[in-house]
Amino acid sequence: MTRLAVAALAALLTLSALALPALATPQHALQLEEPARGPQVLVAGGTPAGIAAAVAAARKGLSVELICDRPYLGGLLTGAMMDQWDLNKAPDGGRIEGGLFRDIYDQLGESFDPQSAEAVFQRLVASYPEITLHLDTQLLAVTLAGPELDRRVESVTFQDRETRARLEIRAPVVIDATDGGDLAALAGARYDVGRQDTGLDTKMQAATLMFSVDGVDWHTAVRSYDDTRYGEGGATEKKLWGYTRLLRTYEPLSPRVIVRDLNLGREPGGRVTVNAVDVVGVDGRDPKSVAEGAAIARVEIFRLLAFLRARVPGFAHARLAAFADELYIRETRHILGLTLLTAADIWHGRIPYDTIGLASYPLDIHPTYVGEPPAYAPVRHVYGVPFRAMVPHGFDNLLVAGPAISATHVAAGSVRTIPTTIEEGEAAGIAASFSLRRGVDFASLALQRNLMHQLRTALVQAGAVIDVARR
């Protein structure tokens, strides 16, 4: 790898000037920190939100370092086999997402395979020389400056998992686009975990292991779907969902598993993905808990597949093709921002002055424990995502874009979806340019209506939709 060669050369050139231990070797030298770098924007997270942030900033001519914890771009879309969109729609059924999301959607379509998603993201990032990409690179440390209520992220240290070389990056603007708000949490930002805001406990929404199957007769499955027999559902050429009534007769093997319904996606090659197996009690911040949840789900999937073969038309010859590489973690932290998005904001369709994008996905709360009843009907209300929810309290050069923005446990059931996080990422990248060029910090930008008006104008010029009537 290129970075390995650079790191090794740098280490060798400095050996004579460093007091290395007597037994030091070139391998030890590789772990020395590289000199701090200075891009204009640092984006942590190769998620769809992180990619959108990096591209939006690059389009404004800013230099960007994009750090991806995974060995591939795309986050849950590629790693968790999330091969279809949870779309935001207007009351008339029209789309209310614009900008970068629309560009990506037009390339991938309604349903896609993880390889196609990865390729689209890779091409998108590679098309901007302003972006320097680091894959499979983990977050290690954050250095801060300034008083407690006016802190700045001074530098962030990462480590390449393959070479073990450390990389310290200094940037005037930092965007945390990790799914769990990992950088903000490491920097000391305040946050709730799971449903902590309810005062009950810190239980989190169930995690899901998706899987794919070959041998499904898709046309038979679609034609035979009957709401009376299987429960309310629906189908398109590439999507099929429902079976709630049928699955009430399914008895999970594990007491931690819930199978409420099926969400099926038909990939271009005919393979079918299945989103069905929820596992409760998984802490997405803890690798051991995640590994345990994935193991439980894998065993359960064999049992569920046998049930589907016997009970679902079109599945008689279905055979397991693959498990997703990782669990779909819906919820971990909610970073405290300058405002808190609530279920009431969503249910009443509030559009605040600092709206950076529109959303309408229902309040889709997956259970935190077996037997938890649904809290809200699957009804859509168009609402605005507030920029203030992306600004961590007490920080002036840090933004959060992704499922970890400032929202309650229930509100996160809607705002966590990937199209919405892409809107947030694009807004973060454009806000980075606005902040640097105007010399204004994010807290001031968020709280001054005249500045927010200017930022929203820039978002609209980039294709974002912030007004249903003008989409």
Name some characteristics of this structure.
single chain, alpha+beta, 5-stranded parallel beta sheet, 16 helices, 22 strands
Structural account:
- With 471 residues, this protein is of the alpha+beta class.
- It has three domains: 1-28, no CATH class; 32-201 and 332-471, FAD/NAD(P)-binding domain; 207-323.
- It contains 16 helices and 22 strands.
- The protein has helices at residues 2-14, 26-29, 48-59, 76-79, 99-108, 114-126, 182-186, 218-223, 227-230, 244-247, 287-311, 343-347, 412-415, 418-438, 442-447, 449-461; strands at 33-37, 41-44, 64-67, 131-134, 137-145, 152-160, 166-169, 173-176, 191-193, 207-208, 211-214, 234-235, 239-242, 257-258, 262-266, 272-275, 278-279, 319-323, 333-335, 355-359, 383-386, 398-400.
- A six-stranded antiparallel β-sheet has the order 12-13-15-16-11-18. A five-stranded parallel β-sheet has the order 4-3-2-8-22. A four-stranded mixed β-sheet has the order 1-7-6-5.
- α3 (48-59) packs parallel to α14 (418-438).
- The two termini are 45 Å apart.
- Residues 1-33 have low confidence and may be disordered.
CATH class of the largest domain: Alpha Beta
Indicate the proportion of strand residues: 15-25%
CATH superfamily of the largest domain: FAD/NAD(P)-binding domain
Gyration radius over CA: 23 Å
N- and C-termini, Cα separation: 45 Å
Main sheet: strand order: 12-13-15-16-11-18
What is the domain total for the residues? 3
Give the CATH topology of the largest domain.
Answer: FAD/NAD(P)-binding domain
* Main β sheet profile: 6 strands, antiparallel
Per the principal axes of the C-alpha atoms, what is the gross shape?
Answer: globular
Q: What percent of residues adopt helix (DSSP H or I)?
A: 25-40%
Please provide the count of β strands: 22
**Number of distinct helices:** 16
Low-confidence stretches: 1-33
The overall pLDDT average reads 91
Which CATH-level-2 architecture of the largest domain? Answer: 3-Layer(bba) Sandwich
Query: Pairing-aware structural class of the strands and helices?
Result: alpha+beta
